[in-house]
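Handover notes (outgoing to incoming on-call)

Open items:
1. Guanylyl cyclase-activating protein 2: sequence verified, structure written out, both below. Nothing else pending on this one.
2. Nothing else urgent.
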Amino acid sequence: MGQYFTNAEGEQTEIDVAELQEWYKKFVVECPSGTLFMHEFKRFFGVQDNLEAAEYIENMFRAFDKNGDNTIDFLEYVAALNLVLRGKLEHKLRWTFKVYDKDGNGCIDKPELLEIVESIYKLKKVCRSEVEVEERTPLLTPEEVVDRIFQLVDENGDGQLSLDEFIDGARKDKWVMKMLQMDVNPGGWIIEQRRKSALF
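Guanylyl cyclase-activating protein 2 structure tokens:
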């Protein structure tokens, strides 16, 4: 028997009570104050000394901070875990769009996307299309990635990606999907942290 949790899209999701209790124990161990602060979030991803990468992590933090109080409380933590570990593709793409749309105007322009791609490059140091991997050609530059995404996804040619264009583009093209989802893999980090703290 589980508890129901309402996700960001307003849908009810069942979460096992034992799993919820495990998440709470780990949250309290990691965040004894009951809230996760920005500096702790950056430390989890190892970017506290990397200014460019830290900016991306700050955007991610703000996307998880639903009430805008500059902390992540347990409910926001559960919502984030639920999205990252169990979320549907469309929900993950909507969340990614929110992270990328830095000015919150409902569209992503080239400078916003370029800033994100540059930050992610600095975090991951890898970003190859499938063709490049097969042919062992050089990495695309962040500018080339952004230009190619806009060429493939900006259907109306207005120089901005709407949420619908973002989601449709990701669904239609495997390379675009990979590029639009190229994040620091919070799901991988969360799973790794859960493995490390299995004794709690």
